[in-house]
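Troubleshooting log. The previous structure file for this entry was overwritten by mistake, so regenerating from the original sequence record. Sequence copied from the archived sheet and checked twice against the printout by T.R.
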Amino acid sequence: MNLENITDHLEAYKQHGQIIDAANFVISSFGLEHENFAGFGFRPELEPNKLLLTAEGEIGERQKVMIPKNLFDFDLNLVVNMLAHEMLHVRQKAPENLIEDKNEREFQAYYEMLFHKVFPNVPEVSDFHKKFFGEKALEYYRRMGENSELQESYKEQKLEIEALISSVTS
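Regenerated output below.
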């Protein structure tokens, strides 16, 4: 996958104010599509150095991913990972995959941002972001409940995350 070529395409979309077209281009370029995806909409921008995307819609129904208009002002690898996170939520909320527990959904989505098991074409993020996303995953793991059945089912992934955090901070 040629990230430079993708970056050039995204710059052209951005210059013409075609942010939703650019986001759709990323979805197709990195294999993030899913039939439960209802499209993109805009959400308010945060501070210039903060990025927030959300997947919105009732669980079991099609999901719309809300993005800020300044999405493509950020590092491409980070943007692709953020979109992959939301597209995993789109899958998790589909009737055939339904994951009702928010902590489980978030843990899975942050795990995906680190290891790219569902979306193997997604590029790696910086060590700073790996640590940040790893810590977010562990936070949702803790929220599953101490020694709960749900926590037990993700014990191996938790160990993988801890090892990754250790490797990027040492």
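Residues 32 and 84 are 6 Å apart (CA to CA). Archived copy saved in two places this time.
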